[in-house]
Predict the 3D structure of the following.
Amino acid sequence: MITAIVFVNAEVARIPEVAEEIAGLEGVSEVYSVTGQIDLIAMVRVHRHEEIASVVADRINKVPGVTETETHIAFRTHSRHDLEAAFSLGLD
């Protein structure tokens, strides 16, 4: 599974609608409303790198109200869940 983190800026008046529409797109697992320089963060999870272009360029960027996106590809996952699982197996 390939994960991409997509920073999304949107027209202020449409942020809630943009978030809902993006959340409903195939390939998008979650959308977070955030504070700071960006409005939303979309988590994209796909099986092939080529699918990222399809989700971001062909779907997210075409949602009415989206003004800008910035995509980051994750190359390694670190999570508390992974660490707890490793320790429970005695892999310290």
Q: What stands out?
A: The chain has one domain: 2-88. Residues 49-58 form the longest helix (10 residues). The chain is about 30% helix and 35% strand.
